[in-house]
Amino acid sequence: MLRKLYHWTLRLAAHRRAVPALAAVSFAEGAFFPVPPDVMLAPMVLARPDRAYVYAAICTLGSVLGGIAGYLIGYFLEPVGLWLLGAMGKADVFAASQATFNEHGVWAVAIGGFTPLPYKVVTIASGIFGFSFPLFILLSVLTRGARFFMVAFVVRTFGPAMLAVVERRLLTFTVIGAALMAAGFAAAALL
Description:
Shape: globular
Structural class: mainly alpha
Number of strands: 0
Largest sheet: none
Number of domains: 1
Radius of gyration: 16 Å
Strand content: under 5%
């Protein structure tokens, strides 16, 4: 089923209503949809490199708004949030995240917002655990923005060849990106 959703999302990127669809997929991914908007963002940037950063901004806004919806589901409708996590097969990830949120909530949101970890788990868990809402929004804007603008930059600058490399080495790029983000947060904490 996930593969079908993935291919459906790819086809949507070529549709004449791709921009509103990108916003909708970005929103839905922040709360419940299993396919990340990067799947649409990359082919759209390849087709229109001059609009790369507009598309990245649309992804960021949609994803943050979807993240807010996920947070609110967790905060006000905890049973629904727990059901969604179970339906997505992420109940085990949620259970493991409670200890992380209790000690390192900022890192959990930051890493979940930037990496391929399921952002929707982070959004719903943030609401359930009562993570600071303003801080959640700030971290979501920074990390989701960094992720989508990085994808837009890489695809716009290096084209399809680099996209293939990134897809093959996604974990490596994620670890490097998370390490750079951690270093940035550590440096900011020292200032």
